[in-house]
Design a protein that fits this description.
It is found in: Cytoplasm. Its EC number is 2.1.1.144. This is Trans-aconitate 2-methyltransferase. The protein is an alpha/beta fold and 252 residues long. It has one domain: Vaccinia Virus protein VP39 (Rossmann fold, 3-Layer(aba) Sandwich). The protein contains ten helices and seven strands. The chain has a seven-stranded mixed beta sheet.
């Protein structure tokens, strides 16, 4: 079953979630692309950044979520419904940007070499995924889901590869690979801020598996575990480590 999304909830932390996107683009050297693909555009809030940087390009925004596509269109982005698993680059695609998407695509390590092979010479593939599936924010969700009466299917720790694995994967295609990781310390505020943070992403499959009442019971039991794992500072704010993995591959 496909994960459903709440674009408004996702955008509650827009500034925090957007920073890795800008850090990824800072390492993209493409100058005059014909077509730029925002593969997994979400609510379309970052697609205009691509259009502004490369005004001469056709910017193609794609997402597998009907809710996200609707939100993107409502904001003026001409988004199209398209699953990454079924996508093939057009012959003039000179840049592919996939931001915080591939962790939802179990087959992405097999797809990436195929995409790069299909891209024209000189094209660039840029990706960013979370690398925090072993963190308490995710491990505690899996732990509680395993205790639950109803079956809940979640991504495991292997939802993404490690940086060295992506480097090897990209280098094997013949592309020049630039791979790195960054751990941001996000300063969160409010009541149960980590729970609120993951409600827009990691908890979406839980919400899909459970009814509204059961989901509320799940989060009620999860909240104190997250508070213990991420205690608030003296000023009431919470520091949340946010590890991200980046890769840019330039095809010769």
């Amino acid at each position: 079953m496909a994960t459903t999304w709440d674009p408004a909830l996702y955008l509650d932390f827009d500034d925090h979630r957007a920073r890795p996107f800008h850090d990824l683009l800072a390492r993209v050297r493409t100058t005059d692309p014909r077509r730029v693909v925002d593969l997994g555009c979400g609510p379309g809030h970052l697609t205009p950044v691509l259009a502004a940087r490369w005004p001469g390009a056709v910017v193609e925004a794609l997402d597998s979520s009907p809710d996200m596509v609707e939100a993107a269109r409502a904001s003026g982005v001409d988004a199209r419904l398209q699953a990454a698993e079924d996508w093939t680059p057009a012959p003039d695609t000179d840049l592919v940007v996939t931001n915080a998407v591939l962790q939802w695509v179990p087959t992405h390590t097999a797809l990436i070499p195929r995409w790069i092979e299909a891209l024209p010479a000189g094209a660039t593939f840029a990706m960013q995924v979370p690398g925090n599936f072993e963190a308490p924010s995710h491990a505690l969700v899996r732990e509680l889901a395993a205790e639950w009466e109803q079956p809940i299917v979640l991504r495991g720790e292997a939802a993404v590869a490690e940086p060295a694995e992506y480097a090897e994967l990209l280098a094997a295609t013949g592309a020049t690979a630039d791979v790195w990781e960054t751990t941001y310390l996000q300063r969160l505020t409010g009541e149960d801020p980590v729970l609120h943070w993951i409600s827009g992403t990691a908890l979406r499959p839980v919400r899909d598996a459970l009814g509204e009442a059961e989901y509320a019971r799940f989060t009620d039991r999860l909240a104190p575990r997250l508070r213990a794992a991420y205690p608030a500072s003296a000023d009431g704010t919470t520091w949340f480590p946010f590890r991200r993995l980046f890769a840019v591959a330039h095809k010769a």
